[in-house]
Amino acid sequence: MNPYPVLYSFRRCPYAMRARMALHHAGIQCVVREVDLKDKPQALLDISPKATVPVLQLPDDRVLDESLDIMRQALAENDPDGWMRADTEDMQRLIHQNDNAFKYHLDRYKYPERFGPDTDAGQHFSDAAVFLRDLEWRLTRHPFLFGSAASLADVALFPFVRQFAAVDAAAFEHLAVTHVQAWLSGWLNEARFTSIMLKHKPWQAGDPPVFLI
Predict the structure, then answer these.
(1) Which CATH number fits domain 6-82: 3.40.1740.10, 3.90.180.10, 3.40.30.10, 1.20.1440.230?
(2) Residue of 85, 89, 64 lying closest to 76 (CA atoms)
(3) How far apart (Å, rounded) are the C-alpha atoms in residues 74 and 61?
(4) What is the value of pTM for the model shown?
(5) What's the gap between Cα 12 and its chain centre?
(6) Which of 18, 44, 92, 112 could form a disulfide with 121 if both were Cys (CB 3.0 to 4.6 A apart)?
(7) Which long-range contacts (CB under 8 A, 24 or more apart) does 70-74 make?
């Protein structure tokens, strides 16, 4: 039995980012195994038929292979800043919109070649921007999505907005979402985010452990 949870992760994956953020925030030490998505380790395949990151294997061998489940598990153990205090139906709806409609348009904006010659990246940019305007409306009222302090939703969403912004930084900057831009910048410049974004080589069986914290 491994004395620490083991997190199979991929540095640039937004789902893995939000899982790492929650684990770090909760102060949960875990072993991070960076996954080469083109050559997934057998140890990952053995515990998760989905074989998508993130996957968290707990010391008692329970396996969590959904990022939100990992986040909630971590924050149930320790939530020093109260990220879960506003885990309401409204928050759950917003996260669902992010993970479904926004992610749908984001993928087709970022990788149009994967979805066929008729995929219009510009249209998907515009459709994704509708969601950003909803976030803008929220952030004009208070500094975070659900009030004056960060919540589960902020951490669950910002890695996806980061991915959108990185496709074409100039196009993102020209959107009339100045509050979203400032909110994203705040997260990207946070020490915790810098810490969870350290680069590690893909894990292979027998490698020494790499710890999250």
Answers:
(1) 3.40.30.10
(2) 85
(3) 16
(4) 0.97
(5) 9
(6) 112
(7) 70/7, 70/19, 70/22, 70/23, 71/18, 71/19, 71/21, 71/22, 71/152, 71/155, 71/156, 72/152, 74/19, 74/22, 74/23, 74/25, 74/26, 74/28
